[in-house]
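Co-fold these.
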Amino acid sequence: MGSMPQKMVVGAAAGFAGALFTMILLATSWDGTLDAVYVMGLDMLVAVSFFAVAGTFMKYSPVQGSTMPILSALAIAFSLIAAMYGAVEIWQGIVLVILGIVALLCAACPAVTSWVDVNRKA
Amino acid sequence: MHMSNGKGSRAPIAMVGIFAAFMFAVVWMVAVFADGSWSFGVDELSDLGISDVCNAANIFNYGCMLFGILIAVFGAGKIAIRYGHDISAGILLVLAGAFLVLAAIYTKDSYDLHMFFVYMFVFMMGLAAVVNAIGDFRKGRNLFAAIGGMLVVVTIGAYAVGGLAGLESAGAVCLIVWMAAAGASIVASKD
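Predicted complex below.
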């Protein structure tokens, strides 16, 4: 069992940062009206997808290495949709997409996927 | 690195995909600047094809025809050099290219015919992207599979958010990125 690649930490940090950032946006988007629920729902979808991304970079990853880039790409897609809907500001959407791309690049690294595949069932 | 994989040379096919993406991006931008009144996410792409500014309409329609031909050539190239899911995606790309050419010939003036070809193009292109992503995933090209899946989800989300105008605007951007990524995938992969 080799040592954990540094990119595992970077990917997990990007995932957690995206999730926490979106949770803050979610909390601040409630304005007492029913219309805010649409925005909060989209924010929650983005937050959950980023938490899922962070979870794939753990030692006991729930998914195979080959699935990790798919989850990161979904987090980027949901961030873009949230930005298009106006659930997050444009600059907030850019921050989320950048964090997603960092996670995607880490997840696509062969050293990361092979390490996850070896260790997740160890 | 860009040598034959046993079924033919990959580099020219990859270049067709990447060139098509850049070509359509330039044509779109030039047509929008020539028209002056077209707005991203508000107007439909089809409106550029019947623009009051004759040059904008001509540039966009001929650009779409050329783009459709390049998509079909790219699809035919994938059929020639690849296996499995990539051949299915190639066939769908050839059909999608043909429908885009027809949508550019029969502009929005002949509304029913134009919309039929547009919807067939979107359907074939979406199906090609999904099949291509599955093929990429099965063959270990995880990054390109993820990018393809992401672009499909964003396009569907754009339709939910912005209706047909949103679908066309965001979908066209996604299509440009997808063509470039699909071209790069052929260069980067080893099979």
